[in-house]
């Protein structure tokens, strides 16, 4: 139990990988562990697409914002929320499928996140490093077209996997008392705690970048949230058959 806690608490994003290949049988074991994750009402709404090195991978790297490690990581996976198979299940029983509900979108997306985190835990326990790639949602229509995703399927994020060729520090997380509440929501002390936390985050960035980046957590979040956050996602998801009601 101690080993599991330490493993999870020492997660880092890895963006540089060695050339050592990841054995396919190990990768498939990680995917099977992902399948064992909790799944809402047994919907099993995750599809994973393994992308070989080459032109498609390079396109995905470009569409994700020019993240080169999408091209160079030994393994790159695209995790999709998939309700297409539920349409097939309804077809098998000549049942009309009532789709487009917000709850369905939420449960399918949550399923993907739980599945992926099991994969990540297994990979990191095997000595691999990972990096989630949310940047695929910069161009979800292009990604969907390239991967031939049908209606009721959308790309949630990508995942780079490989043996680390760097050893970054663990990024400090928020104080536990900001995250863990007792019996009710009480954030009366959180502002002061976040100010103290900001000091540690600034120190982390300055150390990691050799002084090239000096930013607190609250500065980063406030800067991010005063900008639009992929407003194209709602019409894209509605075109895919999600979030219609």
TrEMBL record:
Residues 10-163 form the Nitroreductase domain. Pfam families: Nitroreductase (PF00881). GO terms for molecular function: FMN reductase (NADPH) activity. InterPro entries: Flavin_OxRdtase_Frp, Nitroreductase, Nitroreductase-like. It comes from the Bacteria. It is an enzyme of class 1 (oxidoreductase). Keywords: Flavoprotein, FMN, NADP, Oxidoreductase. Its EC number is 1.5.1.38. PANTHER family: OXYGEN-INSENSITIVE NADPH NITROREDUCTASE. Belongs to the flavin oxidoreductase frp family. This is Oxygen-insensitive NADPH nitroreductase. It comes from Natronospirillum operosum.
């Amino acid at each position: 139990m101690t080993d599991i806690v330490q493993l999870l608490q020492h997660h880092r994003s890895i963006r540089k990988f060695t050339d050592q290949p990841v054995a396919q049988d190990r990768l498939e074991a990680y995917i099977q562990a992902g399948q064992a994750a909790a799944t809402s009402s047994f919907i099993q709404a995750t599809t994973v697409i393994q992308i070989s090195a080459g032109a498609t991978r390079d396109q995905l790297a470009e569409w994700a914002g020019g993240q080169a490690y999408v091209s160079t990581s030994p393994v790159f996976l695209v995790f999709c929320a998939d309700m297409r198979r539920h349409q097939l299940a309804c077809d098998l029983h000549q049942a009309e499928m009532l789709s487009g509900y917000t709850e369905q979108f939420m449960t399918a997306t949550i399923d993907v996140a739980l599945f992926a985190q099991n994969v990540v835990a297994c990979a990191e326990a095997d000595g691999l490093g990972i990096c989630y790639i949310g940047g695929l949602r910069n161009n979800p229509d292009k990604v969907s077209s390239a991967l031939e995703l049908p209606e009721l399927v959308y790309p949630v994020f990508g995942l780079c996997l490989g043996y680390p060729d760097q050893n970054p520090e663990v990024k400090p997380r928020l104080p536990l008392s900001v995250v863990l509440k007792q019996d009710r929501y009480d954030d009366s002390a959180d502002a002061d705690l976040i100010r103290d936390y900001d000091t540690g985050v600034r120190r982390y960035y300055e150390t990691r970048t050799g002084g090239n980046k000096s930013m607190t957590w609250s500065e980063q979040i406030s800067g991010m949230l005063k900008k639009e956050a992929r407003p194209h996602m709602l019409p894209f998801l509605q075109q895919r058959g999600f979030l219609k009601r």
